Amino acid sequence: MEKIENLNSSPTNFWHGQYVMFGSIVFFQIVNIVVQKIGKPKSVREDSWRWTNLVVSWVHAMIISIWDIVCFILYPELMNDLLYYKNNFIYFMVAATTGYFVYDFIDMIINNKIFKLWEITLHHIAVISMFGLNVYEGSYLAFTCVALLAELNSFFLHSRKLLQMMQFQYDIDFRKTICLFLSILFLKLNNAKEAYSSE
Fold first, then answer.
1. Which residues contact 158 (CB under 8 A, 6 or more apart)?
2. Where mainly located (predicted)?
């Protein structure tokens, strides 16, 4: 099948992607250092590495979720060509998230978690391989943008886990509000997916 270039897509520069990826690794290492300096709350019983890792992952999920939603708002045409649509805004998001997964993989190696958390290790290897290839080739960026909508879910899951680790006491109204919000979010995203699939 012959590759069809999207005439509206802006060119991406491989080296710029590498710089963003490296900058992302450095950024998340700085976040890690700051979280370690602050320390875990006294109410957290789990080990410090788990707390720090979850906070850094939460920061990544928050940044990428917002960035991803902005991609769909600014560039709705990306849904018309999931394979070859590209622009620097989306390309840099994919490079930044790849950098995060490289950072987290290295952090797991340094802290001897690679075999203890083997399912996360396999996930990171798969993501780094796929997203890294997308950054290298500059293709499948819009498809990756769709896949990164999962980070919105990760943001809320990490928020919940962090609150549990801090032994946050949920009252019934708070719990109902969160359940309602997440149900509406799920239905909206599911409806958007169904609408796109039926086109």
1. 54, 57, 58, 61
2. membrane
